[in-house]
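Students often ask what a holo structure prediction actually looks like on paper. The answer is less mysterious than it sounds. You provide the chain, you provide the ligand, and the output is a string of discrete structure tokens encoding the 3D arrangement of the protein together with heme C.
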Amino acid sequence: MRGVRYIGAMRLGVYAIALCAVPALSLAADYVGSEVCRTCHSDIWTPFYRNPHYKSIASGKAKPENTGCEGCHGPGSDHVAAGGGSDTIPVAFSLIPPEKVLDTCLRCHSQTISRSNIRRSVHTDNNIVCTNCHSIHRSQTPKFLLARKQIDLCYGCHTTVRAQFSMPFKHRVNEGVMQCTDCHNPHGASAPTWRMADRPRMVDQAEGNEEPCLKCHVDKRGPFVFEHVGVRVDGCEACHYPHGSTNTRLLRRPVVFTLCLECHNGFGNFGPNNSGITQPQATHNLALPRFQNCTTCHVRIHGSNADSFFFR
Ligand code: HEC
Ligand code: HEC
Ligand code: HEC
Ligand code: HEC
Ligand code: HEC
Ligand code: HEC
Ligand code: HEC
Ligand code: HEC
Ligand code: HEC
Ligand code: HEC
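The corresponding structure tokens follow.
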């Protein structure tokens, strides 16, 4: 289907060149104003007053290229003169490739969503663009003009994530307590300072370039007099599954000590002369069940203001 449509777009190109050769016709179509579109597209026009894009028509102050229907579809004189047709309107979304969709919308929206690095986002890399998630004329959510309710929209493509939010321990996204966008920015995310400034999974930063988790779990924010470097550098996901887990507290491992020993094994670039992350000393008899639940003693595992070993 797509391929056939691209051929349509190419034909449009040829058509434009052909027009060029005829001096009597101007190549560039003119702006005719949105009222003209109403005559033939009343089904789209009638509900449009509720669309945020109607503001440009209502104000009457925007330039023609930024006003109403033609703000997205381009100048319509040729289209009107021809009595309609997909080939005659400069921007027919059914014919244009994803990158052209992106350009059309970003002409006005680059300011608001530039912080998200949308051109380098994983969605953009995978040809998931504005119109995959937003519907201008048939939105199911007046706010943000989403094509479907957010949860249905995201699960529509991310089916495995639904199973994660159905696990015994989870964030209550399926129950409507929170949303994907409490943690993710579907437009992309810029490099955070945590997790070695890698750009993980379009996880959105909260204020101050910190993990979004801290917006809600404020007691974990710090700064602490004694930081647990593992928390600060590797981020919350080093020990927790963010979506859901079969382990209590959303932990990555069923037994706490296996989690700790993944880092506290004498390797890594910490400690004197980069000798490695400290191992628990011999006083820790790991054969004893008492020592296996490390956080019974190291209770302030996210950081402490009182004790460098996180006892209190
Ligand atoms: C903010 C950009 C934008 C504006 C403004 C806009 N459109 Fe659209 N239009 C689209 C997109 C995107 C599509 C493709 C379908 C979709 O994703 O909703 C579309 C599709 C269409 C279609 C194809 C048929 C259909 O129902 O999908 C028609 C006709 C149309 N628009 C007419 C209009 C008219 C008339 C106006 C002014 C009242 C208008 N558009 C304003 C973006 C816009
Ligand atoms: C004289 C009637 C008429 C007027 C006026 C008119 N259109 Fe259309 N338009 C049509 C017809 C008919 C189609 C259907 C083409 C089809 O479905 O193959 C169409 C299709 C479209 C499409 C769909 C292209 C696609 O994706 O396939 C868009 C977008 C569009 N019109 C925008 C506009 C805009 C914007 C205006 C005002 C500047 C406008 N039209 C004015 C008759 C008109
Ligand atoms: C001509 C400029 C222009 C173009 C092109 C344009 N927009 Fe908009 N868009 C606006 C303006 C202006 C608003 C209203 C902002 C406001 O409410 O203050 C808006 C609002 C929105 C909103 C609602 C934001 C909210 O807070 O609810 C969404 C979503 C949106 N646009 C998506 C798109 C998409 C997708 C495209 C491409 C198909 C597009 N826009 C093309 C100017 C534009
Ligand atoms: C993968 C899905 C997805 C894609 C692709 C996408 N959006 Fe969005 N967009 C959303 C969701 C979900 C929201 C609502 C965010 C929220 O609830 O906080 C949103 C919100 C918005 C808003 C209003 C809030 C804001 O951040 O300013 C605008 C404007 C917008 N999108 C425009 C666009 C444009 C333009 C494109 C393409 C360049 C685009 N979006 C691509 C899903 C998407
Ligand atoms: C509590 C915060 C949070 C919520 C809510 C959340 N995510 Fe995530 N998600 C994350 C974090 C953090 C990662 C990165 C995990 C990692 O890299 O170890 C991630 C990773 C992902 C990934 C990539 C890795 C994978 O598991 O495939 C996808 C896709 C994803 N999330 C989709 C979603 C969707 C869809 C929703 C809503 C239904 C959602 N997320 C809700 C925090 C969240
Ligand atoms: C039209 C399909 C589609 C929709 C809708 C969609 N995504 Fe995606 N998403 C993808 C594809 C394709 C990828 C890249 C392949 C992959 O990682 O699964 C992706 C990747 C991701 C990733 C992983 C990024 C990484 O670094 O690996 C996250 C997180 C994500 N999407 C979140 C969301 C959220 C949140 C929503 C809803 C607002 C959403 N997606 C809606 C198709 C979609
Ligand atoms: C929008 C607010 C919000 C955000 C953002 C958020 N959480 Fe939560 N989190 C909660 C709530 C509320 C609960 C309580 C459990 C529930 O809702 O069932 C919870 C529960 C938890 C629990 C389990 C606590 C327990 O006692 O079992 C852990 C662990 C957790 N979150 C870690 C994270 C991590 C890691 C992130 C970032 C990837 C994060 N949270 C982001 C609101 C949030
Ligand atoms: C080094 C591993 C590790 C990292 C990194 C980590 N946690 Fe935890 N977290 C734990 C352990 C272990 C528990 C369980 C403690 C217990 O059961 O006493 C826990 C428990 C929790 C709880 C539930 C109990 C409570 O104290 O409220 C929340 C909420 C939580 N973590 C949030 C976070 C957030 C947010 C981050 C990122 C800032 C984070 N965690 C980073 C190991 C970690
Ligand atoms: C993601 C890696 C990572 C994980 C997982 C981790 N830590 Fe750490 N931890 C560190 C780093 C890095 C340091 C600081 C360097 C050092 O002291 O070796 C540290 C420091 C400590 C210290 C202070 C050591 C000192 O000498 O001051 C204690 C105590 C500690 N961790 C306990 C734990 C416990 C208990 C767990 C399991 C709940 C755990 N850590 C999980 C990375 C981690
Ligand atoms: C019964 C209480 C208790 C439990 C349980 C416990 N620790 Fe400790 N931990 C201590 C004490 C006390 C110290 C202070 C130094 C010492 O005497 O070994 C310490 C120190 C440490 C240090 C710093 C060592 C150094 O040389 O700086 C690390 C790392 C550590 N513990 C990790 C762990 C891990 C991982 C576990 C779980 C396998 C664990 N601890 C379980 C009491 C405990």
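Confidence is low (pLDDT under 50) at residues 1-26.
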